[in-house]
UniProtKB/TrEMBL annotation:
It holds the Pfam family Aldedh. It comes from the Bacteria. PANTHER family: SUCCINATE-SEMIALDEHYDE DEHYDROGENASE, MITOCHONDRIAL (PTHR43353:SF5). InterPro entries: Ald_DH/histidinol_DH (IPR016161), Ald_DH_C (IPR016163), Ald_DH_CS_CYS (IPR016160), Ald_DH_CS_GLU (IPR029510), Ald_DH_N (IPR016162), Aldehyde_DH_dom (IPR015590), Aldehyde_DH_Superfamily (IPR050740), Succ_semiAld_DH (IPR010102). Belongs to the aldehyde dehydrogenase family. The active site is at E255. This is NAD-dependent succinate-semialdehyde dehydrogenase. Keywords: Oxidoreductase. The lineage of its organism: Bacteria, Pseudomonadati, Pseudomonadota, Alphaproteobacteria, Sphingomonadales.
């Protein structure tokens, strides 16, 4: 990997303003999913490093929260500016460890940076309130204070952007943080730490401990010092973390799995529906929690939609994320490939047909053909489980009521999308879908100024927007008597 600024490639734990090896001497081999080559050996932290990072965050907390919001804001804003200036290098690191096309990686860097910009601004707007009093000699106030030390655990599908969604509001609020990035993709997190150092973050305010999910995760969850746990990942791990957090009554924010429906009504603009479906289904090779998992198409537009989607998918360019114009890189690992194969085989056995792609790609490794299936139905695994890969199953439907019931028939509730030009239907369906995010006539909704998060088994809490900072604040009631 060629970088203009080679100091962005850091390979040790970042604790209390220092790069540290793991006491155990253990390392994580970070590999490039496109080539299988080892990109870097990264120190694999354990309990000792997690505890040192928590202690550092605890020591740093009083001074950090005592800064004025404007002072914290200035540092966070500088962090944003440094990320934007280093976007090409950061994208190269991201593509090397995760595989997504370089242009998409660059988009992720800028999207992530925007959270630092937004919360640098929002830091200055953590307002309290005065309350009407119940007695003449009393004045009542509600003030909002930082919750304390925050633990963050992030996944590999957005190695960079999932970090600012948590770190930017947490630090803006006056909290300090210990981050455990996914073991597959720790390099983006460590590069961010290096830029945070240059931006002037005081020692211990932001710590990064790559390493064993079990050891580092358990230390973060069990700590009495950590007051908030913010996690993005699978519903299964989210459940475990929430149960663990119960012992210390830690607050949790969980961004978990999804099973997003896309609904295309007969009156949809076909081109917009195709564009939107491609955008939500195939971003990051289908490996996002807001990716379409079930595509419901009304009978009157079904055949035209299926043909047009299959044609677009067949024309996609697959390859190493560093090659020009590549639209789809490899999947993260072979387990991801096997899950796609399992979902396709199950669907074919139950009557679906492949109309584009269908299996492993000739490039080998974890490259997988983007795939479209027709004739999907509710009995198939793909209707119930998140595929987390580039497989688009099409379900035919007849009526609005029928499709709303089908779309809501899932334990998940993160994102949903629908396409229609009927404005009454926009309201009816928008209100009836039991999801935290609903895209209408679009497949791309993410924006730092809007609340992102799920209902049901998709999670608790919101990231982004003015609501995102509330996750890191406690409300305190001051009752002042004797006036
Ligand atoms: P994904 O497959 O999207 O990475 P996971 O939920 O498996 O989703 O992982 C998300 C993050 O959670 C990663 O950083 C992973 O290392 C971490 N993780 C996985 N299992 C645990 C666990 N038992 N305790 C704490 N963290 C965990």
């Amino acid at each position: 990997m060629r970088l203009d600024d080679s100091a962005l490639l850091q390979t040790r734990c970042w604790i209390d303003g220092e790069w540290r090896d793991a006491a155990s001497g253990k390392e994580i081999a970070v590999t490039n999913p496109s080539t299988g080559a080892v990109v870097a050996q990264v120190a694999s932290g354990g309990k000792a490093e997690a505890e040192a990072a928590i202690a550092a965050a605890d020591r740093a907390l009083p001074a950090w929260r005592a800064l004025t919001a404007k002072e914290r804001s200035g540092i966070i804003r500088r962090w944003h500016d440094l990320i934007v200036a280093a976007a090409d290098d950061l994208a190269a690191i991201l593509t090397s460890e995760q595989g997504k096309p370089f242009a998409e990686a660059r988009g992720e860097i800028l999207y992530g940076a925007a959270f630092f910009e937004f919360y640098a601004e929002e830091a200055k707007r953590v307002y309290g309130e005065t309350l009407p009093s119940y007695a003449a000699d009393r004045r009542l106030l509600a003030i909002r204070q930082p919750i304390g030390v925050v633990a963050a655990i992030t996944p590999w599908n957005f190695p960079m952007a999932m970090i600012p969604r948590k770190a930017a509001p947490a630090l803006a609020a006056g909290c300090t943080m210990v981050l455990k990035p996914a073991s597959a993709t720790p390099l983006s997190a460590l590069a961010l730490a290096e830029l945070g150092r240059r931006a002037g973050l005081p020692d211990g305010v932001f710590n990064v401990v790559p390493g064993s999910a079990r050891e580092v995760g358990d230390a973060l969850v069990e700590s009495e010092v950590v007051r908030k746990l913010t996690f993005t990942g699978s519903t299964e791990v989210g459940r475990t973390l929430m149960a663990g957090a119960a012992r210390t009554i830690k607050k949790v924010a969980l961004e978990l799995g999804g099973n997003a429906p896309v609904i295309v009504f007969d009156d949809a603009d076909l081109d917009a529906a195709i564009e939107g479906t491609i955008a939500t289904k195939f971003r990051n090779m289908g490996q996002t929690c807001v990716c379409a998992n079930r595509i419901y198409v009304q009978a009157g537009i079904h055949d035209r939609f299926a043909e047009a989607l299959a044609a677009r998918v067949r024309a996609m360019k697959i390859g190493d994320g560093f090659e020009a114009d590549v639209q789809q890189g490899p999947l993260i690992d072979m387990a991801a490939v096997e899950k796609c194969e399992q979902h396709i085989a199950d669907a074919l056995e139950k009557g679906a047909q492949v109309i584009a792609g269908g299996g492993r790609h000739a490039l080998g490794g974890s490259f997988f053909e983007p795939t479209v299936l027709a004739g999907a139905d509710a009995s198939m695994l793909i209707a119930r489980e998140e595929t987390f890969g580039p497989v688009a199953p099409i379900f035919r439907f007849e009526t609005e009521d029928e499709v709303i019931a089908a779309a809501n028939d899932t334990e998940y509730g993160l994102a949903a999308y629908f396409f229609t030009r009927d404005h009454g239907r926009v309201w009816r369906v928008g209100e009836a879908l039991e999801f935290g995010i609903v895209g209408v006539n679009t497949g791309a909704t993410s924006y730092e100024g809007a609340p992102f998060g799920g209902v049901k088994a998709s999670g608790i809490g919101r990231e982004g927007s003015r609501h995102g900072i509330d996750e890191f604040l406690e409300l305190k009631y001051l009752c002042i008597a004797g006036i």
